Amino acid sequence: MKTKLWILSGAILLVVALAVFIDIPQSPLWGTKIKAALGLDLVGGTELIYQADLSASTDKVKDLDNLKNVFEKRINELGVSEPSIQTSGGDRVIIDLPGIKDIDQAIQKIGATYELVFMTTSTAEDGGVQLPDYYDSSYTYPGYWKATDLTGRNLTKSLATFQNQTQGMTSSSPIVSIQFDNVGKQKFDTLTKENLNKQIAIVLDNKIVSAPTVQTEISDGQAIITGQKDIAESQELAKRLNEGMLPVPTKLIGQQNVGSTLGKDSLKASLIAGLIGLLIVAIFMISYYGFPGLIAVFALSIYAILTLAIYKIIPVTLTLAGIAGFILSIGMAIDANVLIFERMKEELKLGKQLNLSILDGFNRSWNSIRDSNISSIITCLILYFSTGSGPIRGFALTLLLGILISLFTAITVTRTILLLLASSPLKRFIHV
Predict the structure, then answer these.
(1) What residues contact residue 382 under an 8 Å CB cut-off, 6+ apart?
(2) Of all residues in the chain, what percent carry a pLDDT higher than 70?
(3) Residues 102 and 17 in one domain
(4) What sign has the CA pseudo-torsion 332, 337, 340, 346?
């Protein structure tokens, strides 16, 4: 029994030591700075909410996930530090951009809506339309154009490169290589076959991005666009094509800007509230339960260390609501200890030895601890998966993590320390 306790104690110390290495700002373990991600209400920035039109989707979950991936690619090009991108409500993508104060700039970079379609030359009589707007005014594409069923959702990759890198040629002319999915490959094969020596316009939001001439039939789903003046123009074209790689039509339905001054004040107030909460809990536990209460406070400190480490590893984006969930979980973390100590008190009153009272106190209080925490966990899961609100999801996530970690610290850490001390000269201090 004692050997198992020492092994368990060593494992706990190892986990805590690892968490401390993660928690410190400049971690010797990783050699890099691991920071907790802070939400817009704490550091300021811009929030954009997009809604996807999934009416024609055959796999709504997959299409929404693909949409999220497309937004991630666009935001990575912005160089935003620790952005948050999450889906909610079944058809929405919520994007938080810390540090981006200009909403118009964020919308311009990410896009209010992008619909990319491939169009062929046509006539007015055949239903063709004129497109007078071009992304590059130095190129003009007069005439009439007709949309095809080949769209941005069939495009999987667009990359600016040089011709000799892909074609084995000595020329170093800048080009843009594009690649389609299996469905797009068949559509593009038909398009190139039917439009040899004709132009195919690539249109993004009713603006022509490029209108290359089909020089040969392409059946493998991979093509190159030539004619760019330099690599910068190729990169811009590739960027435009990537912007149109949306799996479903999308529109911007909400936006807000959060100032950093409010964020700093809120963060300071939250930290003070958390420290006050910890102090009050510590005073109550020590004054009411004495030495066992001190052990519970020590376990609570381990709880805080582990929680912060997990926040950094996942990572959890901390918002005001998320911090509220963490502060609430502090009280819930000590709740299990209260139940255990009260049960231990009853066992000691029955005349049982200290070791047996500790074991029975934990075992007989477990059902109450389990049931109360399971109900809280279920509530957290409902809040997290059913709500479309980012702050509420943040609250549910931090509270859920807090409950799970508190179960570990209360049941494992406190129990292990008490049992070890019960077999030492310090056992005379253990009374509840």
Answers:
(1) none
(2) 87
(3) no
(4) negative
